[in-house]
Structure formats: C-alpha cells, structure tokens
Design brief:
Elements: H1 3-13, E1 18-22, E2 25-28, H2 29-45, E3 53-56, H3 62-74, E4 77-80, H4 87-97, E5 99-104, H5 109-115, E6 124-127, E7 136-137, H6 138-142, E8 160-165, E9 175-179, H7 180-194, E10 201-204, H8 211-224, E11 227-230, H9 236-246, E12 250-253, H10 255-263, E13 277-280, H11 287-297, E14 301-305, E15 315-316, E16 330-331, E17 335-340, E18 353-359, E19 365-366, H12 370-376, E20 382-390, E21 396-401, E22 406-408, E23 411-413, H13 415-423, E24 428-438, E25 442-451, H14 459-467, E26 478-481, H15 495-510
C-alpha cells in the first residue's frame, strides 16, 4: 500500500469523520480526499509526474496535507522545508532535490522569488491564500471537482514518498529518502504503543515539515482515521485552549514546549480532562520537567525518540507497564535497536556505545550521497550518532550526541547529565551545556541558563548547586544567563549557535 491508498481506505471506511480542524473549522475525510484529488489533477496538468519533486513551504495549514498527499497520488515526492529558512538555505535544498514546483504563502513569496532564478528545475510556483502575477493560485486546485486519481505503478518499499532534509549541523543538509513503506510501517508500529483509535484527536502544533509531526500527527492520524487539530504557531495558552476546546486526547510536543507551558503564567486554569497522553520527542526530556508537568496537569508524558532517518519513531516508553523517566523506552514493534562500539560490535548491557537501528522504518538512504549512506548504514544497521546504553530490561537511554560530548582532561562529559542537574534547580526554567576550549584541559563545560519568571540565582549559586551533585570535572566553569535560548522551529535548542557564540567570545578574547 502507498500513502495515497492509505488515505483512500480511511475515507472509504468513514467519509464523514473529521480529518482536520483548522481555525475551528472541521474538514471531513471525504472533503480532504476531494481536495487532494483536485490538487493532484492540477499538479498533473502542470506536468508533475512520478518521481518529480514538489517543494512544500507552508506552516500548519490544511493545504500542507493536501499538497503532500497529492504528491503521493501521482507518485511524486514531497520536499517539505522549514518556512524560517533563508533563501540560500532553500536554494541548496531545492537544487539538490531538483524540485519542479513549489507551494507557499504570500508571506514567503519574496523568499521563493529570490530562490527561483538559481534553481533551474523550478518551473511553477503556487500560492496558498493569495494571488500574485508570478504565482499560480493553489486554492483553485483543491476547490475544483476532480475524480479520485489512480496512482501510477511503483513499489512502495522502494519508491520515495518524501525527501526530508536533515538540519545540517555538520556541513550541508542531506536529503533523507523515506519510502511509502518506511512511513506506513512506522505508523503501524505506533498504533499499539499509543493504543490508537478513530476516536482520538491530536493537537498538531509541532511543524508538519518535521519528521516527528509528519509521521505522528499527519500520517498516523490518517492511518487510524482520527482527527488532527492544526495550530499554526505555538503558545502555551493557545495550546491548552485548543486541547480544551477540541477535546484533544493526544498532545505530541518537544520538551521545550512542555517546559514553556509549565513555567508560563497562564491566564486561567484549563480543563484538560480529555487529554489521555502526551508524547515527548525531538530532544531529551529533562526528568524534572516531566515530573512537574505530570503532577500539575495530571497527564502521562511518554518519552520516545527517533531520528528523521527512521521515519522517525524508534522507541517509546510504554503506556501501560513500566515507564522509566530519563529513558527513551523500549523499541517499538518491528524495530530492532542495539548498542555498538566503534568497531560495530555489540557492547554489554549498561555499557556506553552508539545506538543503531534496523527495521522497515529505516530510510532508503540520502539522496545523491552514496558515501554518506554507506557510512550511516554500516553493517546493515543505521548508526544514529547518539551515545547511549540499554539496561537489563531492554530500555534505552540516550546519554548524548556524539558531537555534543565534551572531553575535559581526557574525561567524557555528557552535557545531558549536567543539564538534568541544572533542571532540578528551583530557579532554572531551561538549560543547555556546551564545551569551550581550554588550554590545559582541552575543554570545559559552559552552561546557558534561562531562569523562571520572577526567580533569582547568581552564577555562584548555580555552580555551587552543581558541585554538590556532580564530579568536579563535570561542573560548568561558567554560567551565562539568557532571557531565552536559540531554538529551531521544532523547539529544539540550537547548541551549535551557543558553541559558535562561545568560540567567538574566545576569539575576541585572544585578539
């Protein structure tokens, strides 16, 4: 089965079921299928065929889902990207993918105009919710009547549904090719873990261009036949109000969102009794934040994890059974995980090594990058780049990213361990730890800290607190207070920007 056939089957089961809610307006599965069929007809008339790439540069709006699934109906490949990217960043992605058409909103029209002259493959630009002389009206496509398309023949196991470009923390971003089967297999694995049913309602505030929301909020919702409430932007009170108003049952988010809700001075109490589970992923969840959130809002947070290359979910703490705070849980059905050493040999239980993954959810490879694909897929396992361990019960723990590790006098310091301690300080709302060069010890930890509203703490207070709880070599040498930390569109703290800031400071000091 391919993704479009998945939508078709769900619609045939219950065409009147609400698929999406946007700005309080419901869209049924029957209406969504009709809209997707109209867009597919319009794309086809523009010459979009099997294997062609279509760029989607949109916030969380219904037209994102329409454009994405119209691609699947034609055997074309969706290329979603972060709407906050700059023209140079998009230009690289669009040239690498060879996009034929692009869909965006009026606010981003100038960005696409700046990109188009240097992307020879880009023939058509379409606009959602507006008109411009050099753009085709996207809304006219989904509003037209069109027969339900029949996808061209292709093997769902081998044919890409999407190119998801990784964040590019090292070098240029890589186009991760996920097949129809990769994504559907990941949905099939998530259903029993979350005990999904068509009565569930997602709150989708995570950006749909990201692997987490793309699978868990969009594909999984359609696979099961439940409803997804789309929010264009995150705010603590906006998210809680939407949960209350639309009786959402599942709230997937990243840790910084849970922390923001926890520490934000809410205007009133919200009725969250409809919410049966929260899902955290995308970054490590501080145990202190998890415990405080669960206590305040009386709802379970299941921490899980998975890289884009794995469609992306690999492991989740169980809904029923033992949840282990600080762990990413157990591998989901159909997914194998192990801990390898530098020679790709499995290490004993409890020992640190690299987390590797195998299963139907693992990507086809990186587009146009056979060497990077071969390196990532050594020994038939996808190498995540995460340093972790597995306990005697089979629960996996991420200690840190390989590239984030700080080496102090030959000793490994994993920033997450230090951050966990910082998050337990009563005045700390957010924390991130990076390394800075030290002539004697190689590196030293530096902590960036955001205090809770109205809270006070000095650098000396924070360092003393850490000294009581950490070995001396792990204690931050400096504490830098900030009103906020730089974050990606998904809410992940951008440590590379903090590292760059530290490097620039040191460079200026040396000068």
């Amino acid at each position: 089965m391919n993704l479009f056939e998945m939508l078709l089957q769900t619609t045939q089961r219950n065409p009147d079921q609400t698929a999406l809610i946007f700005r309080d307006k419901p869209i049924s599965y029957g209406q969504l299928l009709g809209a997707v069929s109209g867009v597919a007809k319009g794309f086809k008339e523009l010459g979009v065929e099997k294997g062609d790439r279509v760029a989607i540069l949109l916030p969380n709006v219904p037209q994102f889902v329409m454009a994405y699934y119209a691609c699947q109906a034609l055997g074309a490949i969706a290329v979603p990207a972060n709407p906050l990217l700059k023209p140079d960043e998009l230009r690289y992605i669009y040239n690498d993918a060879g996009v034929k058409a692009a869909v965006t909103i009026p606010l981003l029209a100038d960005v696409l105009r700046a990109v188009k002259p240097q992307v020879p493959s880009l023939q058509h630009m379409l606009m959602v919710g507006g008109e411009a002389p050099d753009f085709l009206p996207f809304d006219a496509l989904w509003q037209q009547q069109a027969p339900v398309p029949t996808p061209p023949e292709f093997n769902p196991r081998e044919h890409p549904a999407v190119f998801l470009y990784t964040s590019g923390t090292t070098g240029f971003p890589k186009g991760c090719m996920l097949s129809h089967r990769n994504l559907i297999a990941n949905c099939e694995s998530c259903v029993p873990v979350l005990e999904m049913s068509p009565q569930d309602k997602f709150l989708t505030v995570l950006p749909l261009f990201h692997a987490f929301a793309g699978t868990v909020c969009m594909h999984l919702s359609i696979h099961v036949g439940c409803c997804s409430t789309l929010l264009e932007r995150f705010s603590p009170d906006g998210a809680l109000e939407a949960i209350e108003k639309h009786l959402c049952t599942i709230f997937p988010a990243v840790p910084t969102m849970f922390a923001a809700i926890l520490h934000f001075p809410l205007p009133r109490e919200y009725d969250l009794s409809s919410l049966r589970v929260c899902v955290s992923g995308g970054a490590p969840m501080p145990v202190a934040v998890m415990e405080a959130f669960e206590k305040r809002f009386n709802v379970v947070i299941l921490e899980g994890d998975g890289p884009t290359e794995c469609s992306p979910v690999t492991a989740v703490n169980p809904l029923k059974g033992v949840r282990k705070p600080g762990s990413i849980g157990l591998p989901i059905p159909g997914v194998e995980m192990k801990i390898f050493d530098d020679n790709d040999k499995e290490v004993p239980v409890g020992d640190l090594g690299e987390i590797v993954v195998r299963g139907e959810n693992v990507m086809l490879g990186y587009y146009n990058q056979p060497e990077a694909t071969a390196e990532a897929m050594r020994s038939g396992w996808y190498h995540t780049g995460d340093i972790g361990k597995v306990d005697e019960d089979g629960y996996f723990y991420i200690v840190d990213r390989k590239k984030d590790m700080i080496i102090v006098g030959g000793l490994n310091v994993y920033p997450r361990e230090v951050e966990e301690v910082l998050h337990t300080h009563p005045a700390v709302a957010e924390a991130a730890v990076v390394g800075e060069y030290d002539e004697l010890r190689g590196e030293e930890p530096v902590a960036y800290v955001v205090l809770k509203p109205g809270a006070e703490a000095t650098e000396r207070d924070i360092i003393r607190y850490c000294r009581q709880r950490l070995a001396n070599f792990k204690v931050p040498r400096r504490v830098i207070f900030r009103e906020s930390l730089p974050k990606s569109a998904t809410g992940k703290i951008l440590k590379r920007l903090l590292r760059k800031e530290v490097e620039q400071e040191q460079g200026a000091g040396a000068g």
